[in-house]
Amino acid sequence: MNERMLADLFNHLETVVMERLDDGSFRLVGCVPNWFKRFYPEAVSRKEGLRLQDNSPFLENFCIDAESFWVGKGAGRLKSGTFIEMDPLGDEYAMEASALCSREKKILLIELLGTAYEDRKAVLQKARENVLFREYLEEEVCRRTAKIRLREEEIALRLVWATESRDKDTGAHIRRIGLYSEALAKALGWEPQQADDIRIAASMHDIGKIGIPDKILSKAGKLTSEEFEIMKKHTEIGAKILEGSDIPLLQMAKEIALGHHEKWDGSGYPRGLTGKAIPESARIVAIGDVYDALVHSRIYKPAKPEANALVTMTHGNGKHFDPKIFECFLRILPTFRIIRQEFHGTETMLYLERPQMTLFRRP
Ligand SMILES: [Fe+2]
Ligand SMILES: [Fe+2]
Fold first, then answer.
1. What is the DSSP letter of 166?
2. Ligand nearest, relative to CA of residue 209
3. Which residue segments constitute the domains of the chain, with CATH numbers given?
4. CA-to-CA distance for 169 and 214, rounded, in angstroms?
5. What separation in Å is there between the alpha carbon of 185 and the centre of ligand 2?
6. Looking at residue 123, what is its pLDDT?
7. Highest mean pLDDT among 8-17, 41-50, 82-91
8. In 3D, which of 356, 358, 363 has the Cα closest to residue 146?
9. CB–CB of 21/63 below 8 Å?
């Protein structure tokens, strides 16, 4: 292979090899490819005494790091990372410098990254786009899930609203029951999604009252035993309205509608279930429902002071109420009081509050 051929071959190489001399300049090893001459024209006329760092602030900095690498006779290569140089025509070229030691010599390689760099840039760009797209998709899923959730809530609340327009219970009571139940569920260690579900599901506990005749539902005095038997049916009517759905929120609402008058000792209705045979959601709602009914007045009864209500409820511990949930209720009583303060209305019917129906969360 003659010298011309060798020079031609070097023109196609994308790496320049140089030796670092003691005075800080460089000596070119082998032939010099044309692309390198664009940036360091002095390399055309001489091969020694080149001061590359004078033309490139980036290389100047790299040579400072490289010097300690060379002096320390570091193993492997010290790489500069990609840097961009501009030729006199304004074209940009991506390069990378490496320092290495070879046979006691300090060697500097300068590599033209060319298409390899463009390819790598394209790969990185693609990876970045993929990450951004995945983030976008995740956000979109969250946004749509939240929207579906709001719709479920709205449908549930409109259903409650339909019942409440006939019932003596107030909108404030409905809100409080949801919030008490959510607080109890959280304190019992429920998952956030389920605790959120019970807030809405609990509001539907008496939805079956829609099927109870007005003369019983609106009766001011005490119900006769025959009327009470009919009133009890609101649990099963509610369950019928809510059953068969594959929406977890409505499945829970059905459990609650059917089970919120069951009692821990089996003396409740409609099925006389005992203990844990009663769904936990219904056991939770039972406590909040009784507490709220006792401490608030109704058209047919005055409110009890909380201390008296707690005495009454304590008698029901282990009979009416699940002892574990009752203990939890006593522990988070301050939260119940805060909820009562925030939603203290007793007179306002939910249907009068319709514009705020979606504001069913604690502020
Ligand atoms: Fe009920
Ligand atoms: Fe209630």
1. T
2. 1
3. 3-112 (3.30.450.20), 156-356 (1.10.3210.10)
4. 14
5. 17
6. 86
7. 82-91
8. 358
9. no
Q: Which of 257, 235, 281, 262 is nearest to 319 (CA)?
A: 262
- Measure 176 CA to ligand 2 centroid, in angstroms: 10
**341: its two tokens:** 């303060």
Region 273-293: what's the mean pLDDT?
97
Distance 290 CA to ligand 2 centre (A): 8
Q: 258: which 2 tokens?
A: 């059917």
Q: How close is the Cα of 212 to the center of ligand 2, in Å?
A: 15
Give pLDDT tens digits for 135-176: 999 999 999 988 887 887 777 777 777 776 665 556 678 889
Dihedral sign computed on CA atoms, order 55, 58, 64, 67: negative
CA of 361 to the centre of ligand 2 (A): 18
The alpha carbon of 293 and the centre of ligand 1 are apart by a number of angstroms equal to 11
Query: How far, in Å, from the CA of 204 to the mean position of ligand 1?
Result: 9
List the structure tokens of 47.
């091969």
CA separation, residue 267 to residues 229, 254, 271 (Å): 14, 20, 9
First-residue to last-residue Cα distance in the chain: 85
What's the confidence (pLDDT) of residue 356?
44
pTM above 0.85, yes or no: no
The answer to whether 205 and 256 are in contact (CB under 8 A) is: yes
Whether 102 contacts 74, CB under 8 Å: no
